[in-house]
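Regression test case RT-17, inverse folding.

Input:
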């Protein structure tokens, strides 16, 4: 599981995370909602050791992420992350994009990487795009390619950072359908998202962030259906139409 214990993170004078306590069990889906600048994405970067923390502790399967002795590259193999921008290699085909990391990082043979890449691309609905270059695809397809690329590393956890925010509205659904499939497969996920209806549908828990703190956390029925905190109520009144 993933555990955060009193995690503080600052950028210079600006404290972005102000003592976050959070536990995500294996197989759970946690959606993180809140306004811009509330610390949601920063938390993901800290879990994946992309950003350091000032104090507290983050544990992934009991391994302290920010301990100097921890092999962060090895740890990141457990934790797939998909960003707002899809960052594919434009000079490689879709299939080659997904094969690259398993071969380079995990040392897989060409044949094994090829098999896994095809399998994951089929999983995200891109079976007909194997030989296409990413620049010839829609934003939604490119984002599904990014998900397949992360899954090819056989992670135990997936972190999603606003992965639909750069997409045209008509493309959002196909990406969210991919996350629904992962949910059905039992993947442990933390999703930072503005898609409140989606969060309500797929999440075991929802955390509402406000100014670097978890203002409210609970089941979708609790946090979205019957929020207790005034700030949660104010936020939802603006985003739920």
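Golden output:
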């Amino acid at each position: 599981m993933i555990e955060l214990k009193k995690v503080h993170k600052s950028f210079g004078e600006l404290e972005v995370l102000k003592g976050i306590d959070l536990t995500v069990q294996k197989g759970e889906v946690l959606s993180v909602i809140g306004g811009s600048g509330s610390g949601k994405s920063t938390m993901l970067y800290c879990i994946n050791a992309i950003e350091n923390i000032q104090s507290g502790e983050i544990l992934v399967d009991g391994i302290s992420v920010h301990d100097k002795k921890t092999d962060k590259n090895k740890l990141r193999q457990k934790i797939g992350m998909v960003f707002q921008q899809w960052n594919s290699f434009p000079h490689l085909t879709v299939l080659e994009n997904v094969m690259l990391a398993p071969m380079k990082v995990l040392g897989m043979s060409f044949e094994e990487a090829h098999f896994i890449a095809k399998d994951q691309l089929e999983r995200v609905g891109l079976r007909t795009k194997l030989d296409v270059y990413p620049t010839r695809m829609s934003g939604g397809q490119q984002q599904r390619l990014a998900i397949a690329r992360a899954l090819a590393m056989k992670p135990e956890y997936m972190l999603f950072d606003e992965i639909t925010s750069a997409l045209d509205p008509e493309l959002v659904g196909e990406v969210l359908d991919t996350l629904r499939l992962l949910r059905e497969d039992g993947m442990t996920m933390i999703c930072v998202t503005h898609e409140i209806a989606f969060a309500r549908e797929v999440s075991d828990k929802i955390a509402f962030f406000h100014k670097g703190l978890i203002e409210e956390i609970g089941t979708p029925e609790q946090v979205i259906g019957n929020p207790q905190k005034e700030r949660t109520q104010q936020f939802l009144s603006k985003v739920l139409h």
